[in-house]
Design a protein that fits this description.
about 120 residues; mainly beta
Length: about 120
């Protein structure tokens, strides 16, 4: 099982980024998938989850209306579209197989998102 994130970077407040998570070694559409972030000096924070196949999606309140989780099942890839970014969104973003409730099974290496003017 491997999860490889990409798409992070530095952006000004109000900007957008799209994170990608390429999965290999398993069929990601068959699993709950999540994005979890960790800001400097803080613990991991769940951001968003997608049920198998993407039928249902969930978000932490602070990103609702700004972030969108989606999948491309043909590419075995998970995405996180992040719009209207704020400095408080600055963190290392991880793609994770599983959910907090059921248990996180596998983590990617993370991709850094920095929102700063």
């Amino acid at each position: 099982v491997q999860l490889v994130e990409s798409g992070g970077g530095m952006v000004q407040p109000g900007g957008s980024l799209r994170l990608s998570c390429a999965a290999s070694g398993f069929t990601s559409s068959s699993y709950d998938m999540s994005w979890v972030r960790q800001a400097p000096g803080k613990g991991p924070e769940w951001v968003s989850s997608s049920t198998p196949g993407g039928a249902r999606t969930y978000y932490i309140d602070s990103v609702k209306g700004r972030f969108t989780i989606s999948r491309d099942n043909a590419k075995n890839t998970l995405y996180l579209q992040m719009d209207s970014l704020k400095p408080e969104d600055t963190a290392l973003y991880y793609c994770v197989r599983g959910t907090a409730a059921a248990g996180y099974e596998n983590w990617g290496q993370g991709t850094q998102v920095t929102v700063s003017s």
